[in-house]
Write a structure and sequence with these properties.
- 2 copies of one chain form a homodimer.
- Chain A has 14 helices and 7 strands.
- Chain A is an alpha/beta fold.
- The first copy, chain A, has 3 domains: 37 residues, no CATH class; 211 residues, 3-Layer(aba) Sandwich (Rossmann fold), CATH 3.40.50; 47 residues, no CATH class.
- In chain A, strands 3-2-4-1-5-6-7 form a 7-stranded parallel beta sheet, sandwiched between helices.
- In chain A, strand 2, helix 5 and strand 3 form a beta-alpha-beta unit.
- The longest helix of chain A has 32 residues.
- The first copy, chain A, starts with a helix and ends with a helix.
- At the A-B interface, helix 3, helix 7, helix 8, helix 12 and helix 13 of A face helix 3, helix 7, helix 8, helix 12 and helix 13 of B.
Chain lengths: 313, 313
């Protein structure tokens, strides 16, 4: 353990990998590591990248990452796929492209699939962000797939949220994405050489103008990720947003929030495990559960009864 | 209250509406109603309908519903939209089409948007299913949008899951949907007059053949919902699946599961509220939380400490 942490502190990527594995398996050792590495440096810029399937998230992440490495930054990438509890996240990103990235110096990639509980994904992501930050990564990119509450929770960990769209992907998906639009800090219209790109930009600008957001006016960028076009502008914009966050103290606030949310998440986990452990093993609760299943006791009265056994008043 | 329940038991749809509102607002009255109506009749066939945006879910649901009403069934529809915590579910289904449906005799529609907590949606849906069943609905249709864990949890409430696709919607969405595919009982290729329909059917059949599912072989139907084509075949297939469930006792098992999950859901809610209430008000916990935010105490030790205050050992 001590040796592992020693190599971790010496910036050995093998140690980072082992540490992440321990944390992911939720072992005692994992929690010990999280405790020890708590002194979050708070230095890393956490960037969330999202968008519908087919928008080119992986390509863009990959090109962005390469340019950042060339500029001397160290990078951590977290791929989050909340859509496939059954497939175990086998569809995460473009595996081959990602493997290529992993060969770059100072790039570390971690894939994350659902680990059972609904809230678990965002908490795991937050833990990994902390570990990567503690390890000394300058920039941490969270790439996430799909829509839904889990995506929101994951994106909320980020300092800067980038939403990637493509021209002509259809109104249906744009509509579904409406919720996400409100939390994006930077909009990217990728595959901007396709017809309809300028209209998409116009639509987005109009939408931003109409939004009630006051703290920051998101900009709309055009990229052709496959050709590396627009990537350096995206980097500049991310820098500008970071400066904005620091100036307005939102940067500091976000770090406090992150700490607090990780605490609440862990507390929920402990409580949940403890409650489950108790009502599954306590003989007094067994008959209640049987009655619930048979429909002879209503689930609400049963829940109240069992809560009384477990919670201190 | 007694009067409300009396009219509810007399099958007054106005009473059903009021009851659902109380339950949705999570008022004391709502919980009281859920307790009183617990005698789930267990009669209703719960059908989950899902598919990507643009596949024609609303149209198909609407045509299906009309034919079922003509056959003399009473219907409850629950529209679940887990994608828009920010917009408050404003994008739910096709509003106008749904309003038309609501004019039919014996049809009741309830829209449901995210109510904050991640797990909350599935629990609310399960509560509404119970109420509609208790009210005497023969068939309850849960229409859900999007992908993600929430969708899974919602679909798990259903007896029969129908997955709607369209020809040529692209591999990207199909891939994302891979998880869902494994829980579908009936596949529908809608807009089957569009090119590529037969290939989609072939692909799906191949996928089913390769799947490891043994309890039930899902069939693949073609529909053109706008023209009412294929709807009666879908009804036949739903009947066949229902019979299969009853014969194999999966029907009974699902009802026990539903009761149990509603209990666990409610227990989680109670525990969560109680824990939050305690750590937000207890002065002893305040300094711990401050230290967590500042990063001087790690979130995991803090969570352990606070759990000790709250949980009986």
């Amino acid at each position: 353990m001590d040796k592992l942490m020693e190599t971790f502190e010496k910036n050995d990527p093998v140690a980072l990998g082992r540490v992440l594995k321990e944390v992911e398996s939720q072992s005692e050792k994992g929690y010990e590591i999280l405790k020890r590495t708590n002194k979050e440096k708070g230095k890393a810029h956490v960037i969330g990248i999202t968008g519908p399937p087919g928008a080119g998230k992986s390509t863009l992440t990959s090109k962005l990452c390469k340019q950042l490495v060339n500029k001397g930054f160290t990078i951590g990438i977290i791929c989050v796929d909340p859509t496939s509890p059954f497939t175990g996240g086998a569809l995460l990103g473009d595996r081959i492209r990602m493997q290529e990235l992993a060969k770059l110096p100072n790039v570390f990639i971690k894939s994350l699939a659902t680990r059972g509980s609904l809230g678990g994904m965002a908490h795991s992501t937050a833990d990994i962000v902390q570990l990567m930050d503690s390890f000394g990564k300058d920039i941490i990119i969270i790439e996430t797939v799909g829509v839904g509450q889990v995506e929101f929770d994951v994106l909320e960990i980020s300092d800067s949220v980038v939403l990637i769209g493509v021209p002509g992907l259809g109104d249906a998906i744009q509509t579904v994405k409406a919720g996400i639009m409100e939390i994006a800090d930077i909009y990217v219209v990728n595959q901007a050489d396709r017809p309809g790109a300028d209209e998409s930009v116009k639509d987005l600008k109009l939408m931003i103008k109409e939004s009630e957001r006051k703290d920051w006016k998101p900009s709309v960028l055009k990229t052709i990720a496959t050709e590396q076009e627009g990537i350096s502008e995206l980097i500049d914009e991310l820098e500008r947003h970071k400066t904005h966050l620091i100036t307005t103290k939102a940067w500091e606030k976000k770090r406090k929030e992150r700490n607090y949310n990780r605490f609440v998440g862990r507390l929920d986990e402990i409580v949940h495990e403890s409650v489950e452990g108790q009502f599954k093993t306590n003989p007094k609760t067994q008959s209640i559960i049987e009655q619930v299943k048979e429909g002879t006791m209503n689930p609400f009265s049963a829940a109240n009864k069992i809560a009384e056994y477990i919670i201190k008043s």
